[in-house]
Design goal:
66 residues, mainly alpha, 2 helices, 91% helix
């Protein structure tokens, strides 16, 4: 019984960490989107990279954890 509870806690912890990372990556993508007017290429790069990381984290949450 103890092993199952530990696994559930680990999954919850990983889920919470991924959600926090998701929020940070969304902020990263937004900052890249705002940066476009100063430096177009770097701004778009940040934006696309941030969105790819967001999609990857969503994939991890929905297909690996749930």
């Amino acid at each position: 019984m103890g092993m199952m509870k530990q696994i559930m806690w680990e999954r919850k912890l990983i889920f919470i960490l991924l959600v926090i990372l998701l929020i940070l990556e969304l902020l990263f993508a937004c900052s890249g989107f705002k940066m476009r007017k100063d430096n177009k290429l770097l701004g778009w790069g940040y934006f696309i990279f941030g969105l790819l990381l967001v999609l990857f984290i969503l994939y991890l949450i929905f297909f690996k954890l749930l």
